[in-house]
Amino acid sequence: MTIHVKAEQQNSLVNDQFVEALHESPEEVGLDAPAWSVPLARHYLAEEFDVEYCERHVRRLMSEAGLSWKTARPEYYKSDERAQEAWQEGFKKSATTWTTNTRS
Predict the structure, then answer these.
(1) Cβ(95)–Cβ(33) below 8 Å
(2) Distance CA 27, CA 81 (A)
(3) Over the Cα atoms of the chain, what is R_g?
(4) What span, in angstroms and rounded, lies between the C-alpha atoms of 5 and 84?
(5) 8 Å CB contact between 97 and 35
(6) pLDDT at residue number 2
(7) Whole-number Å distance between alpha carbons of 101 and 47
(8) Rounded to whole angstroms, how far apart are CA atoms 44 and 26?
């Protein structure tokens, strides 16, 4: 029973420290990426805390930390045709990332 409690306390501490790190940019914690992704977060957990969580659990932790899922849209749907063309020229497809949730 004592071992189980210590493991729970350790997981809680790791989760708390991980959530703190998520409020920093990956660059601020020494990673070469502009935003958090699930694979990057899993890598960070493995390197910093020597723990491995499944992607589903990492997504849950990221969501609980106040991050929201962001992905690129194939086209900007609220603009006129000229604005759409300009947007498409500047668009570069990128991996899906997590960012701080700004909704109330």
Answers:
(1) no
(2) 37
(3) 18
(4) 56
(5) yes
(6) 44
(7) 26
(8) 9
From CA 37, how far away is CA 98, in angstroms rounded? 6
In angstroms, the CA 17 to CA 36 distance is 15
pLDDT value at position 5?
A: 45
Assessment of whether the complete model's pTM goes beyond 0.70:
no
Read off the tokens for 12: 């809680």
The pair of three-digit structure tokens given for residue 55, joined into one six-digit string? 């992607």
Phi, psi dihedrals of residue 28, rounded to the nearest 5°: -70, -20
Mean pLDDT by 10 residues, the chain (104 residues): 52 81 89 90 91 91 85 62 71 56 56
d(CA 5, CA 37): 30
Write the DSSP symbol of residue 10. H
